[in-house]
Specification:
With about 210 residues, the protein is an alpha/beta fold. The protein has 3 helices and 9 strands. Helix 2 crosses helix 3.
């Protein structure tokens, strides 16, 4: 296991802390990782080559996926490790290409785009969100590794708002257990659970259930 410590709190579980001693380093002067992590849709966007447009007065639904809010531990490009209820570390050599909130936004957008087909347009950048009739926003609560259960977790609190004034909220979570605390295993596992949540969010947006 390879963690980088990032907490001033004394761990509640001393035995666990001793076990992690060889996996934790203090300080930010580590060598850069050999590769960077990203999120990619497993379904794939099949809309390549299709022309889509949404303008005022059209019946075509435009869905805007907004960048989710995040707690401070996710507002950086490192992968958080939940060591205990009061302590957070960071997985060594696990660096996102950009902040996970932006990666997750594009993942949800790509997944939605593949699901809705030509009937709707999905906006997952800041270019033209004013055209949207439906907004998908929320908070990315976890995209992390849990040391106590050797699992990766994706958790998202989603909110849908429509131009008619409707507001709907729902929490989504996916977890994969038995993942070694190594970037070679954690990175792909995080992509899988993030895709599972994105799939559920897309179903929710499309069906309303």
């Amino acid at each position: 296991m390879m963690f980088t410590k990032h907490s001033a709190a004394f761990p509640a579980l001393a035995a666990m802390s001793l076990a992690l001693t060889g996996c934790v380093s203090i300080g930010a002067g580590a060598e850069p990782p050999a590769s960077l992590l990203t999120l990619s849709a497993t379904t794939g966007d099949t809309s390549t080559g299709e022309a889509r447009a949404a303008t005022a007065g059209q019946e075509t639904m435009a869905i805007a996926v907004l960048t989710p809010e995040t707690p401070a531990k996710l507002d950086i490009v490192r992968v958080p490790v939940n060591v205990s209820d009061t302590e957070v570390a960071y997985l060594q050599n696990a660096i996102w290409v950009e902040k996970p909130a932006r990666l997750f936004r594009r993942l949800v957008g790509e997944t939605l785009r593949e699901r809705v087909g030509a009937e709707s347009i999905v906006l997952d950048t800041n270019d033209t969100p004013v055209l949207a009739t439906v907004f998908v926003r929320g908070t990315l609560l976890e995209l992390s590794y849990d040391a106590q259960s050797s699992s990766v977790i994706a958790r998202y609190q989603g909110v849908i708002t429509s131009e008619e004034g409707g507001v709907f909220s729902r929490r989504f979570e996916a977890r994969e257990e038995g993942v070694p605390a190594d970037v070679a295993f954690v990175g792909p596992a995080l992509n899988r659970v993030a895709n599972e949540v994105a799939d559920d969010v897309a179903d929710w947006v499309i069906t309303g259930q």
